[in-house]
Amino acid sequence: MTVTDMPAPHTTVTQRLVGQSSARGEHPALVGGTAAWPGATLSHAGLAAALQAAAAGLAWRGLRSQDVVGVYVPDAVSYVLAVHAIRAAGGVPSPIGAASTIATMAGQLTDCGARLLVTADPLVPAALSAADGSWVRQVISFDEAPGTVPFWSLLSRGLQPPAAAGPADLGLMPYAARPGGRLQATPVTHAQLAAELARLAAPAPVSSSDVVLAAPPDGCAREYTVLLDLALLQGATVVAAPADALPDAALRYGGTAAIVPAGAAFPAGLPVRPVTVAC
Description:
alpha/beta; Rossmann fold; five-stranded parallel sheet; six-stranded mixed sheet
């Protein structure tokens, strides 16, 4: 095989996000959520820097390529930061539904072999209890909660470019409920994540002028993740908004689109186009 015959390197979604966000400067990327002070805004350039700094901090904490890390957070902003920081460090995020019982969480964390878990208030007590019943040895929180490592303390180890990964490497490890309530891993590769982005780009068009209200993670991790990525890759602003507070958030932030769970009641007359997350 000659050099010209070599396949082109695969670019992960996280690598794309960091590269594109770095070039977008101070345009707002993430607003609100428990990952920041109420109402705080993180720019696209700030997001790119935070992810690279968190990657360095996670690596210093022992995260290695293809290690699985639990993600148990209550809103879209902390979800974006956790998922992409883990990927930037070469790890594989495993989202946990906010409605999961402690026993279910512990079972998922044990099954995927996670040694780290990322969480945020008000889910910290349940996260710590689940960690005690699994192999998890470090709980990282967006709040300075006892028994956890503050997420923002990871950002003091310099910057680390997002890790490279092959198209067949895992990029997400969601779990799905099977008959009887048993959870089963449904791993997603980096190539599959890229394909999902391409598939959803047409039916869910987003531009840099959009302000996307995002309800909390609802368990449909694969599509929820891709819709958030689609918004950010197009330069939009993502606002963390509880599903029952969409009207207020739309007025406060000038929302133009919303990522909502399938079956959620969407207020009539709200000048926001809904993008439904379907499992």
